[in-house]
User: Which sequence fits this backbone?
């Protein structure tokens, strides 16, 4: 079977490939990182090796429909305002970056304020009338086990897995809750990006301002886990703990095409890791790097070098806490876990906001225009549903501002453009802040650039301004199974996508390339317009390149660096709400568990097969048309690859080998 795809990416220099396996047609040759378009035709035998099939599996290829109109701008707004944009672009561009970040935007930094005697009294009264599931024993330790995937969406009580908003809220609630004396944080292999880890780490640091203790425990620890764990006051590990602080790696299909970009990404992540760890542990960066290069694996050495506090089992840490808190040895340590504590309302702790309301619209996952029959109720970004929420916020006078929280590698380009339009209309009526999580690239960045202000974490993956589209060529497969297919058509290009049994004719390939190039230019030009930048300047940063948030800010793709709390502070500033006034955040995507979700929650939490399979099939079968999607970058140990779902891996390998 063969596959044909169109990519708009940085430079690709193909290595020597077996002539019977691949054939490449390059339409234009340019210097590295400044290429235009390339049409690549791959003829892959069904007996292809696993390495080649895995290489191809990193690229999305789509067989059914291609429409240049996916990026058509029927609005005259862009065309009218673009000349005006060029007159002020230099001034606007120069005003972006760190100086604007520091001078114009509030930090949103957490400041712990002790409750007054009256406030303490009212909180105690509220606790007396709280729901039974909100009751927490005085002197309790909040225990949270952070491992695996962490969603950027809110979760219902019956949903499995961790939710970043609820994790962060638990830190804030515990800081003010008089019943909580401290936090015991179990940190195990994480399958999320660095943006979420940075957000959680910030809350760990903020929690310490309350004067309560926070202790970490790490039985299995890599760079990402240690980055979070070292922020705790004390850190313990069992004598048999697995530590793998050996450094970071990055992989990508067709590495030659974007080696410089990947090197920059890795340098940013590794440099940030060294900076934060060295400052937290009071060591020089050179000493941290030397320790990594020594290949240390013995827990005793970690203690000797001051990377952990002591070597203890979990029960020994609990015994130590009992002794510190004056709990008798034969008594249990009062503890409350993450799931139960998530049910404690902010109202119970006197943490409710003021009368001014700010809407929070969360957009997480791959982008589709409409919901497919295979999609789960909580999976991905459904364009038509998100547009309804955006319009609801725009039409309501209740909301003073809106925050679009984005955690998406992109997806359907048409859906991205439609959401861009709605977010832009919303920003004309009230302040809109885009807050990026782990990733806001391709279609995810497309959405963000419609907001008035864009924030990213230091290590958010963003940019990737480019498109991908293509079709299957099943000719080789049909030959092997003795299947013949004839097509009768009218119109010169009627078979451009229908003829799946043959490759493109030269004229079809030319049309296809021009159409995809047009789609890319529309994306790029809208990005330039949205960011008050010339097209030529945007072209330097586009071409499918991925940036960390820090690099994106220095290039004008992002306005400021920070997490969700800073997005709230900026939203207040833009809406002319006093900095010291509390606001109420209204979640527009509150989870509402269905009966099937409640009944299946236990079974799905055991293996996750149902969810994994449905999400994979949805991604493969309902990604029509032009895709604004970031693909092909794989960070080992940065994205939890070593701890991925083996069933998902097998399914992907099987499907990519067909």
Assistant:
């Amino acid at each position: 079977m063969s596959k044909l795809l169109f990519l708009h990416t940085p430079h690709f220099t193909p290595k020597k490939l077996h002539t019977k396996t691949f054939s490449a047609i390059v339409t234009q040759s340019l210097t590295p990182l400044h290429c235009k378009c390339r049409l690549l035709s791959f003829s892959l035998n069904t007996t292809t090796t696993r390495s080649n099939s895995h290489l191809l599996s990193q690229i999305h290829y789509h067989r059914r429909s291609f429409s240049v109109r996916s990026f058509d701008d029927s609005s005259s707004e862009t065309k009218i305002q673009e000349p005006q944009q060029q007159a002020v672009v230099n001034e606007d561009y120069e005003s972006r970056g760190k100086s604007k970040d520091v001078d114009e935007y509030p930090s949103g930094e957490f400041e712990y304020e002790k409750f007054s005697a009256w406030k303490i009294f009212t909180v105690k009264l509220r606790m007396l009338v709280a729901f039974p599931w909100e009751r927490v024993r005085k002197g309790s330790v909040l225990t949270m086990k952070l491992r695996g995937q962490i969603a950027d969406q809110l979760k219902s009580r019956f949903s499995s897995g961790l939710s970043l908003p609820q994790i962060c809220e638990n830190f804030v609630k515990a800081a003010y809750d008089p019943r909580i004396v401290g936090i015991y944080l179990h940190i195990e292999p994480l399958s999320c990006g660095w943006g979420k880890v940075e957000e959680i780490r910030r809350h760990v640091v903020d929690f310490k301002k309350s004067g309560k203790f926070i202790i970490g425990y790490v039985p299995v620890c890599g760079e990402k886990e240690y980055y979070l764990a070292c922020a705790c006051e004390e850190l313990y590990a069992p004598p048999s703990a697995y530590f793998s602080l050996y450094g970071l790696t990055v992989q990508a299909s067709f590495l030659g095409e974007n080696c410089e970009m990947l090197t920059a990404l890795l340098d940013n992540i590794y440099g940030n890791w060294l900076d934060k760890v060295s400052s937290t542990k009071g060591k020089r960066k050179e000493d941290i790097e030397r320790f990594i290069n020594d290949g240390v694996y013995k827990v005793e050495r970690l203690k000797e070098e001051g990377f952990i506090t002591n070597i203890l089992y979990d029960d020994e840490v609990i015994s130590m806490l009992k002794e510190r808190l004056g709990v008798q040895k034969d008594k249990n340590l009062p503890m409350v876990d993450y799931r139960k504590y998530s049910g404690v309302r902010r109202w119970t702790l006197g943490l409710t906001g003021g009368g001014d309301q700010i809407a929070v619209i969360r957009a997480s996952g791959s982008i589709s225009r409409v919901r497919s029959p295979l999609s789960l109720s909580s999976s991905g970004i459904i364009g038509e549903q998100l547009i309804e929420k955006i319009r609801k916020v725009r039409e309501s006078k209740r909301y003073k501002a809106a925050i679009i929280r984005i955690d998406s590698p992109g997806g359907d380009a048409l859906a991205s453009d439609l959401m861009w339009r709605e977010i832009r209309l919303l920003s004309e009526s009230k302040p809109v802040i885009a807050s990026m999580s782990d990733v806001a690239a391709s279609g995810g960045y497309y959405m963000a650039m419609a907001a008035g202000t864009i924030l990213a974490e230091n290590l958010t993956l963003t940019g990737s301004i480019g498109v991908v589209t293509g079709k299957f060529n099943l000719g080789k497969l049909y030959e092997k199974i003795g299947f013949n297919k004839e097509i009768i058509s009218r119109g010169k290009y009627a078979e451009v996508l229908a003829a799946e049994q043959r490759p493109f004719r030269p004229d079809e390939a030319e049309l296809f390339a021009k159409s995809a190039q047009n789609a890319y230019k529309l994306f790029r030009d809208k990005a330039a317009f949205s960011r008050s930048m010339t097209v030529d300047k945007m072209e330097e940063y586009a071409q499918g390149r991925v940036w960390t948030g820090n690099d994106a800010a220095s290039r004008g793709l992002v306005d400021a660096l920070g997490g969700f709390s800073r997005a709230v502070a900026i939203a207040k500033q833009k809406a002319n709400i006093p900095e010291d006034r509390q606001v109420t955040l209204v979640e527009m995507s509150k989870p509402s568990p269905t009966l099937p979700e409640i009944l299946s929650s236990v079974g799905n939490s055991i293996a996750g097969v149902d969810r994994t399979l449905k999400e994979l099939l949805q991604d493969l079968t309902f990604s029509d048309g032009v895709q604004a999607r970031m693909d092909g970058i794989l960070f080992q140990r940065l994205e939890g690859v070593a701890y991925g779902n083996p069933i998902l891996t097998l399914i992907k390998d099987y499907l990519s080998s067909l």
Notes: The longest helix spans residues 506-530.
